[in-house]
Design a protein that fits this description.
This protein has 151 residues and is α/β, with parallel strands linked by helices. The protein has helices at residues 10-24, 42-49, 81-84, 101-110, and strands at residues 5-7, 32-37, 55-66, 69-77, 89-97, 116-124, 133-138, 143-145. The protein has a single domain (5-64, 72-145), classed as Rossmann fold (3-Layer(aba) Sandwich). Helix 4 links the parallel strand 5 and strand 6. The two termini are 20 Å apart.
Amino acid sequence: MVLEQVYLDWSEILTFIDTIHEATSPKDGKNIGIIGITRGGLIPAVLLSHRKPNSQVFTVGIKSYNGTNRGQDTIYQTPSMEQLSTFDTLYLIDDICDTGLTFKNLTQKTFKGLDIKTLSLLYRKNNIFTPSVFGQVILDENWRVFPWEKE
């Protein structure tokens, strides 16, 4: 089965970020940590941080895909638990919650014990994990291409 590619534009991305920001703002503490999941979550992390002035951005390095093929999660970089435990509010953000495996592994293993909210621009319904907040639900299996991705 060949999947259709659906191209997203910057205005859609900014709308998703605004939706996430509005949904999370009432819960923000004074000291916010935003963790972007490489690679797709890095740009959303920065965009969100510009809407949350009391935030710091971190990255968790994880490789999950080879092209469009899902592989095993390989974590190669994480912020320290000591660093993260100093924040009132922690957000873990990615571009898409596709299968849910990455969020599940990170929240249940890597960041276990932290009160961390999961954020995603897009959430593919009926997977094994539902983010705390997302910009839009997608119901089809088509591949999403983000504006920062190489065509």
